[in-house]
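Hey L., structure's done. Input below.
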Amino acid sequence: MKGKLVNAYVHNSSAKSAFSGFEIVTCREIPDYDGGTVIETVKTAEEYLNADEIALDEPFYRIFGIYKPKTWMEKYGYDNYIEKKRTIGDFYDIKEAIQFLEELTGNSTNIYSI
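Output:
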């Protein structure tokens, strides 16, 4: 499944992990005003269609680890909790991203938009 808008979540049931779960978000590479490019996450059909007009390549899927609030605050402090995600990896095929997370967590993937 390539070229689709997909948002998904996988719960991480490991009590020892710093992550409560993992999120798959659709990303597009678009040109910026300085002649470079930026990676933009798209979560809605409207954002996807707007980015589709100027995107430089096919969409890809970025996996983020979602930190548990308590773990993040103990490690980095309460003031920094706004940055509660960490990029894990990028995939051009959503099936590969889903398979990676299911192998990592042992849990099924909850796709909430496709």
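The chain has one domain: 7-104. The chain is about 25% helix and 40% strand.

-- N.
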